[in-house]
């Protein structure tokens, strides 16, 4: 079992949690765990895609390392070549 976490709550929130726990017939700890899990799930859903993959970026080596540099210029040249062939 994981070690306990201390959480300080004011009386109003504690009473609300106790009321919900009683209605659901679960412990107050279970209500708090569910609330934290829901918050974390919602937070992770709103994180930018870059932040979700930040630990993976730059991990793989290989291929053309200059592939992503100057893509705008490369696209412009490609389109210019296609226009001149028409």
Short description:
With 86 residues, the chain is mainly α. The chain is built from 4 helices and no strands. α1 crosses α2 (28-46).
What topology does this entry show?
Layout: H1 11-24, H2 28-46, H3 49-53, H4 71-85
The poorly predicted ranges are none
User: What's the total number of strands?
Assistant: 0
Tally of separate helices? 4
Strand content: under 5%
Q: Give the termini distance in whole angstroms.
A: 70 Å
User: What characteristic shape results from the CA principal axes?
Assistant: elongated
Mean pLDDT: 85
User: What is the helix fraction of residues, given as a range?
Assistant: 55-70%
**Helix/strand order:** HHHH
Return the structural class.
mainly alpha
Q: What kind of sheet is the major sheet?
A: none
Q: How large is the radius of gyration?
A: 26 Å
């Amino acid at each position: 079992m994981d070690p306990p976490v201390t959480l300080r709550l004011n009386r109003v929130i504690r009473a609300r949690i106790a009321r919900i726990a009683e209605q659901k017939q679960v412990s107050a700890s279970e209500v708090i765990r569910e609330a934290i899990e829901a918050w974390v799930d919602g937070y992770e859903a709103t994180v930018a895609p870059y932040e979700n993959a930040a630990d993976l970026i730059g991990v793989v080596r290989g291929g053309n390392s200059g592939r992503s540099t100057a893509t705008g210029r490369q696209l412009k040249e490609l389109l210019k070549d296609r226009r001149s062939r028409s």
